[in-house]
Amino acid sequence: MPIYAYTCGDGSEVSLSWYEGAITIKGRFAGDPYREFGIFAVDLQGNLQCDEGARTADN
User: Fold this and answer.
1) Is the model more confident about 49 or about 3?
2) Could you tell me which of 34, 33, 25, 28 has the C-alpha nearest to residue 53?
3) Is residue 24 helix, strand or coil?
4) What is the largest CA-CA distance in the chain?
5) Residue 50 has what pLDDT?
6) CA 27, 33, 34: angle at the middle one, nearest 5?
7) 10 Å Cβ neighbour count for 24?
8) Spatial separation of the C-alpha atoms in residues 17 and 15, rounded to whole Å
9) Which run of H or E residues covers position 13?
């Protein structure tokens, strides 16, 4: 599974990966995940998944 480095709006770096309809976000950042990554999920028709494994859909 490919992993992509991403620099958030607050300057922190996280890694993003795509697997089984979910964008997995690893790392810490101060921003709102919906604002920061929601457009990716909508474009890919997927969900956001955090380090704890919670999956959210905002589309």
Assistant:
1) 3
2) 25
3) strand
4) 28
5) 63
6) 160
7) 20
8) 7
9) strand 13-19
